[in-house]
Amino acid sequence: MSFKDQILEGIPSVLPPAKPYDDAINHAPKRKDILSDEEKKLALQNALRYFDPSQHAELLPEFKNELKTYGRIYMYRLRPDYKMYARPLDEYPAKSKQAAAIMLMIQNNLDYAVAQHPHELITYGGNGAVFSNWAQYRLTMKYLAEMNDEQTLTMYSGHPMGLFPSHKEAPRVVVTNGMMIPNYSKPDDWEKFNALGVTQYGQMTAGSYMYIGPQGIVHGTTITVLNGFRKINKSPKGNLFVTSGLGGMSGAQPKAGTIAGCITVCAEVNPKITQVRLDQGWIDEKISDLDELVNRVKKAKADQETVSIAYLGNIVDVWEKFDQENIHIDLGSDQTSLHNPWAGGYYPVDISFEDANDMMANNPELFKEKVQETLRRHAKAINKHTEKGTYFFDYGNAFLLEASRAGADVMADNPTLGREFKFPSYVQDIMGPMCFDYGFGPFRWVCTSGKPEDLAKTDQIACKVLEELKTNSPEEIQQQMADNIQWIKGAQANKLVVGSQARILYADAEGRTKIAKAFNDAIAQGEIGYVVLGRDHHDVSGTDSPYRETSNIYDGSRFTADMAIQNVIGDSFRGATWVSIHNGGGVGWGEVINGGFGMVLDGSKDAERRLKSMLFWDVNNGISRRSWARNDEAIFAIKRAMEAEPNLKVTLPNIVDTDLLNSL
């Protein structure tokens, strides 16, 4: 069967043969055995409802074995035979070009070069899933192929509920992931309900089909590293950044360090993913011996090199060894997936990777104990370095939160609301006040033609727009504009593309709107093919997360989720092609609500109208919330937005005199 025929077939009427387990692929760890015997029967019933009853007898023992062996029913047999990658738009069987673009984005998220655990349909973060099983993938792709522009596909945590009548201005797809009743968002709730096959962890951009590989976070990480060095009044040149995690989005860290111009040491325990990052050129060198690492870093410092080094081993060993050897760390962080601490997001020290995976599945209580012991050691080693002058920041994957729960020494001596920890979140000190409050965030686009020359043209268009905007930009955002122009000029040389022909660029509402309009004009003139717009959910408006995206909100509202919900509802009726809202993300199940969108530009006047309406709202929704929290930068930004748009009228905060308040 051709690729198009297989898409249109959906779930096959004749079962394909069972597929052997491919040991060469980086697989998800076995999930713990959490279901009762009755719940296991329910999980099997839930899985079999995708198939004709005549197939149940053959599939039942197979699915039972998957559940026993892996802790989930992935339906490996249903994995397609064709290569998984983002094909040019016209290669998809579709009645709607918008639907074809969504198919392209789904396949990009499952591309072996992009996805962390492709056979388990997990894109990044250890559990960030596009779908829970391969039947869901097949059925979704079939629905998208059949969809017309007056239908909307409703996605319930990976399950395609069906095509419903709507209208051409409505989103073509509405995605929800993990939207639990609030009292059922503990980590074990995810384990249980995911094993039952009734919900999934969409991460941030995995379950909304907007992940573009590690590039998606390289730019933000580059800005973070650059501004981290600015904060301590040092040049990156010849100075040291130490962190950990190379799996999904964390894999961007060494590339970002190189672009920023520093020495980067990034630890990773998984040998397969470490090799992948080396092969992709995202790290320069791989070292597995601590003494060799020490000598290499000393040489890099002496020679003032720009180099990225992966240490194949546990990050705790690095912090402790560098303390013993008196190697000064200028910037320190951690981006292991501590939103997922008990299922592969963080590994205990002094235990091999293989033994840890075995313990995780077969002795989860001991594994949890070892992880918490490691977190206490990790924090103790960091504290020794910060006493010597290291600037450490939490990179938002719940390191400080989980370390505090483990009893580690990470709490502030004099905690205040929003400053409970002795170390800041990177959003509190860097990204929040310097970017998000001004409206700058991770705008993305994908060239659906698959042509590198189209991506190069969009880079040129974006650069031209930014240079024009910079000439009239206020002093407050000149540095942000300059950083982004430098980034886009170096994007081609830095070979950031993994998977689709995609790009990311931090821009504010004005920048996003003008860049998007310029793209749409170029499409209308036949210069480039269709473009998909999107963004990371980790943005100005998309995410409510008290320990990351909204950690610099100090009015007490950082634990509310109104902004993210308003964001996705507002995007849906202002022209988004698809919208998504998730429980969970980079900081954990039950710890964050985040929303996102995708928008297809086709060169039409309708697309121009939609992009202007939706992109303006998508950013200024978040600025207005940050302004109401009394963030000075956001007050400046929302006033500027109201001057530019007469129909925007936002309630501004009145500031209480501190002396008056303290006189009570």
UniProtKB/TrEMBL annotation:
Amino-acid positions noted as binding NAD(+) in the UniProt annotation, renumbered to this chain: 125-126, 203, 268, 395, 586
Protein name stated in the entry: Urocanate hydratase
Cofactor note: Binds 1 NAD(+) per subunit.
Cofactors: NAD(+)
Family indicated by similarity: Belongs to the urocanase family.
Pathway: Amino-acid degradation; L-histidine degradation into L-glutamate; N-formimidoyl-L-glutamate from L-histidine: step 2/3
Domain (Urocanase Rossmann-like) ranges: 213-430
Subcellular location: Cytoplasm
Keyword presence, Iron-sulfur: no
Urocanase N-terminal domain mapped to chain residues: 84-210
Name of the coding gene: hutU
Its biological purpose: Catalyzes the conversion of urocanate to 4-imidazolone-5-propionate.
PROSITE patterns (alphabetical): UROCANASE
Molecular function terms from GO: urocanate hydratase activity
Main localization, broad class: cytoplasm
EC number: 4.2.1.49
Domain named Urocanase C-terminal: residues: 436-639
Entries under Gene3D superfamilies matching the protein: Urocanase like domains, Urocanase superfamily
